[in-house]
Design goal:
mainly alpha, 0% strand, globular
């Protein structure tokens, strides 16, 4: 018997409603457990109760009660740990609300429309926020993050020389924090790559333009091949810039629901599995 049943894989990929829902369930379980904080025991208790009811009695993940539990957990985190919750926490809340609405009315076309609008809003306002930030449009934000070794981690650590420069920059920042802020002393960070200031300014504007175009394409042609080719490039670009594993998994799952194309759905599914692995191993940000 073949290790991979291609027919079964194709059947799984053809059911985008269930595939996306299963993937989103896995993401929510990981996110809930890994971001437990001071309320980990309460969250795990509620999660266990919800999963037990589904697995023992209902035996379907399409029952809204489980997703109400997840929404309760997300709201709980927002109330008690508001200052440490990332932007994609809100994205998860809105996406969970969209799933709950879909499970109540069972209108998949309306569900896809809501996913489309949600993605377009996220990308558009992400680009708008960057435009309104002088530190971002000038390239200063990227310059600092690259110089400190926080961005492009899969690429920048390929040589020892680059690693040494980033370590030196981090040491200078530590020393700067120890100085009296009322003095006029300053530091100069070393360039990690040649022509780094110019590269950072260009990359900053490229990020803004890419997100804006992505929002327009998703809103205008949500199922077109060009749209999903561009959306996959956005996901990969974010991956190599910063390992936002949880956010990237959410984008990939949204892509599973949005596309009619079997090949793109397979790409999104593979990306989702990769991001799950990064979340579980706590590589990057989840």
């Amino acid at each position: 018997m073949s290790l991979f049943n291609l027919k079964h894989i194709k059947e799984t990929l053809s059911d985008r409603q269930n595939l996306g829902l299963v993937a989103f369930l896995m993401l929510m379980i990981q996110y809930t457990v890994l971001t437990g904080g001071d309320h980990r025991k309460i969250k795990l208790f509620l999660l266990f109760i919800g999963l037990a009811i589904i697995l023992l009695f209902v035996k379907k993940i399409t029952q809204p009660i489980l997703w109400y539990v997840f929404m309760l957990l997300l709201v709980n985190d927002l109330i008690f740990d508001y200052l440490v919750r990332a932007n994609h926490h809100f994205f998860l809340m809105y996406l969970t609300a969209v799933v709950i609405i879909y499970l109540h009315n069972n209108r998949f076309e309306d569900f896809v429309t809501n996913i489309k609008l949600l993605l377009a809003i996220v990308l558009f306002f992400s680009g708008l926020q960057k435009i309104l930030s002088p530190q971002f449009t000038s390239g200063d934000y990227y310059y600092y993050m690259i110089s400190m070794g926080f961005f492009f981690k899969p690429l920048l650590y390929l040589t020892q020389d680059i690693s040494d420069i980033m370590a030196s920059n981090r040491a200078q920042i530590v020393q700067l924090h120890l100085l009296d802020p009322n003095t006029s002393e300053f530091i100069t960070l070393k360039n990690v790559v040649p022509h780094q200031p110019i590269f950072c300014r260009i990359y900053a504007w490229l990020s803004i333009i890419t997100e804006m175009i992505g929002a327009i394409l998703i809103l205008w042609k949500p199922r077109h091949v060009i749209t999903h080719s561009f959306f996959v490039l956005i996901i990969i670009g974010i991956f190599f810039t910063r390992l936002e594993s949880g956010f990237l998994a959410t984008l990939a799952i949204s892509g599973i629901w949005l596309t009619d194309n079997y090949k793109f759905r397979a790409i999104y599914a593979v990306l989702t599995v990769i991001f799950f692995g990064l979340i579980i191993t706590k590589l990057g940000f989840y």
